[in-house]
Design brief:
Blueprint (H helix, E strand, L loop, with lengths): L1 E7 L20 H14 L10 E8 L7 H14 L2 E10 L6 H10 L3 E7 L3 H7 L5 H13 L4 E8 L7 H13 L3 E6 L7 H7 L8 H17 L3 E4 L2 E3 L6 H7 L4 E4 L4 E3 L4 E4 L3 H9 L5 E4 L3 H12 L6 E2 H8 L3 H4 L1 H9 L3 E3 L3 E4 L1 H4 L2 H8 L2
Parallel strand pairs: 1-2, 1-9, 2-3, 3-4, 4-5, 5-6
Antiparallel strand pairs: 6-8, 7-8, 10-11, 11-12, 13-15, 14-15
Helix pairs in contact: 1-2, 1-10, 2-3, 6-8
Amino acid sequence: MSGIYIHIPFCLQACHYCDFHFSTNRKPAAEMVQMICRELVLRKNYLPKAQPIQTVYFGGGTPSILPAAQIGEIYACIRENFDCQLLETTLEANPDDLTPEKLNALRDMGIDRLSIGIQSFNDQVLRFYNRSHTAVESLQAIDKARKAGFRSISIDLIYGFPHADHSIWQKDLAQTISLAPDHISSYCLTIEPGTALGVWEKKGKFNAASDDFQAEQFEILLQTLDKADYLQYEISNFARHQAFSLHNSNYWKGVPYLGLGPGAHSFDGKHRGHNISNNAVYMRMLQKNKLPFQIETLDKHEQINEYLLTSLRTIWGIDTAYLTEQFGWDLRKERQNILADMLGQDLIQVSSQAVILTNKGKLLADYLAAKLFI
């Protein structure tokens, strides 16, 4: 079944590592909500008609920066215009936005999963990232969310902060495990051009951690979470008791979804597309009932490569039968020598149905997928 993603393009301040589309000017927030609802109505026939909506995901930006009433306005619009058989509704949130009143309102409207952007429990690191919250606020947010009755809580962490040793990362993981969240997403600190870190690096004011240091922290992540009974079901995602992100899992499995808001991406099962990443232009076009949407047509080879890249990162791996049935392309035959080499280096496991990464291979996931590309 399909999903809907809503991109809320506002943040309190700019994190020094972030290159997502957002604005710190929140004055047009109310109008933006109205235009997202208008886009939703104009595009309600985008998804295959036979597929009801299974998941809704509020991302950004910082969705939790909006008043609960504005989030509820979008959510109500979704329910009015789609056949909703919802199994999961997620809201990304910053710890400092989560008051008991807002949490209760979000819960009451039907949001049942929170993805909280912790990033680190070290205040020095948080200040360096220019995060708007403190470690204490992170702990308080998780406690308040549980008291409000949220059934599923995910937290985000960043590894790869340059330091003399791994002590900060080990403490972050120990604190995380003590909180026992249902789900953990953990990403390597990446230096993107145009971000504050990218500018500092170019000017010689900042040096990123070495590849070896980052790899060591990734291995610490895998070992620590495995001992704590978290299953790594995607390179950056871990869950206890099968509490996988259903919405994100559907992305990786090629399920259609509708993306709303500036910069949001969509996939109808055959074509991809994206909205313009400009708040003012996005709203101006929708005021004229014009869609700020550009279609991207992928040829067969591009679709195969995209599937290889996303599926190899998951616990389910590459479904070789799916490739043959969907695209008429036999991975085992076409990449026989490459697969044999990867197998010999203990980078992959090969069954009758799938090609799956080993822990050793997970360190090279995107590189290995590219080796299989057409």
